[in-house]
Write a structure and sequence with these properties.
alpha/beta; Rossmann fold; 2 domains; two-stranded antiparallel ribbon; 13 strands; 23% strand; Universal stress protein; UspA; Rossmann-like_a/b/a_fold; Universal_stress_UspA
Length: 295
């Protein structure tokens, strides 16, 4: 099945910034772009004249305006539009079978908003089987520096972070950018020590060399696949969210992972992704780690 990049559009500055980012990413990756707007007639229980056809025309105008702007800016990107008669969450999740990634608008410093209001954005990020990129708006354009590193957080074993590293390296390769891979670590509690863990740390020469070795091993297969991508390794004591945010100011993209978690209130995205989406000044890609990366 052919792949494409999908952007959710609702006419807000945030969603238009996300669509612009998606168009440039489509150009980098040589992929088509699809703009999606969800609209479904739900009459209100109010004594007001309600015209479903007028609302549908307004929805089409939102798509048409975005299409016209992006066609002018990026004439070489194959572009299509789709008006989906469904809820926003279902509409976007329904595109993941053919999408390489989804792009959504984000206001940051609060709930993930833009194309999806309230908790909808988090629902999409928590449930999507493809990477979702949240793009912040700056005067209607993406808040993204013209150059910079692709900053990625690595955690756990090479298998744990394979999907996240794959996306970071592929994005950097398409953009001609470098990768900064960050592994944050913390001192284990007294009760977490065991003879086997102490032996592994001793064999590596201490806790810091052990973490550095773990990062090198996780990066090795992706360096081999993308030998032209410059890579900087960074290991730092601290929480993953704080360490990543401290380096996100000059990044053109921050890539973090999330595992599928279900709670009483629905899907959860994890503390690191939550912090990045709220506070990172650059676009943030949230990559599902519970989906095996393609060979």
């Amino acid at each position: 099945m052919s792949r494409e990049i999908v952007a959710g559009v609702d006419g807000s500055p945030e969603s238009l910034a996300a669509a612009d980012w998606a168009a440039r990413e489509a150009l980098h990756r040589d992929l088509p772009l699809r703009l999606v707007h969800a609209w479904r007639w739900e009459p209100l229980d109010l004594p007001l004249a309600q015209d479903p056809s007028a609302q549908q025309r307004a929805a089409r105008e939102v798509l048409g305006a975005a299409e016209a702007t992006l066609t002018e800016r990026y004439p070489d990107v194959p572009l299509s539009i789709e008006l989906v008669g469904d809820t926003p969450v279902s509409a976007l999740l329904g595109t993941t079978g053919r999408a390489e990634l989804l792009a959504l608008g984000s206001r940051g410093h609060g709930a993930v908003t833009g194309f999806l209001l309230g908790s909808y954005g988090q629902q999409v990020i928590a449930a999507a089987t493809v990477p979702v990129v949240a793009v912040r708006s700056r005067d209607g354009a993406p808040a993204e520096p013209p150059a910079g590193e692709v900053l990625v957080g690595q955690h756990g074993s090479p298998e744990d972070s394979a999907a996240v590293l794959r996306f970071a390296f592929e994005t950097a390769a398409a953009r001609g950018a470098s990768v900064r891979a960050v592994r944050a670590w913390s001192l284990p509690s007294l009760y977490a020590y065991s003879p086997s863990s102490l032996m592994l740390a001793d064999e590596a020469g201490g806790l810091v060399p052990y973490e550095e070795k773990a990062l090198r091993e996780a990066l090795a297969p992706w360096r081999e696949r993308h030998p032209d991508v410059p890579v900087t390794e960074h290991v730092e004591l601290g929480s993953a969210g704080q360490v990543l945010l401290s380096g996100s100011g000059a990044a053109q993209l921050l890539v973090v992972g999330r595992r599928a978690r279900r709670g009483a209130l629905g899907g959860r995205i994890g503390s690191v992704a939550h912090a990045a989406l709220h506070l990172a000044p650059c676009p943030v890609a949230v990559v599902p780690q519970d989906v095996d990366p393609r060979d």
